[in-house]
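Morning, I've got a small favour to ask if you have a moment. You're getting the sequence in one-letter code plus the fold written as tokens. Thanks so much in advance, here it is:

===
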Amino acid sequence: MPCYNKEMIECMYNQSLTQHRQGDLALSFISHQSQFGWFDKKTITAQSKIWRKLALTGQSKINSFNNKEVVVDGYTWYFLVVQPYKPNGKFAPCNFDPFGLMVLGEMVCGYIYAFKTKQNRDAIYSYVMKDIADSTEENDDEEEEEED
């Protein structure tokens, strides 16, 4: 993963705010492209179908305790975090999201998607996690002790 500093991420974030189009619902940092990207209804719907498949197979989760609201420079964001999981149901270590760490003030591993409305964020969460148990604790990422 490339190395970013706060000024770089904030500059990219501010630039992305000027590039959104009518109909864009969510913003995320696309790490493999090293830039922010907007998601319209068609794109976020397609992405949520992928997340749903991964959640059904236990490869990822969107934990409700990570669904938060934050205000940054007058913009209110309602975000969720897509996090990877191991086959044993334990949290899989991953990188911190630069958007969360340097703009939203959230130190969380995974992929943050910040929505313009709570209704859209909650609808995506509900669709992806329907009938799937949510992790009950924020410490779900503790490693199991190795047996001797």
Notes: The radius of gyration is 15 Å. The chain has four helices and six strands. The CA atoms of residues 15 and 93 lie 30 Å apart.
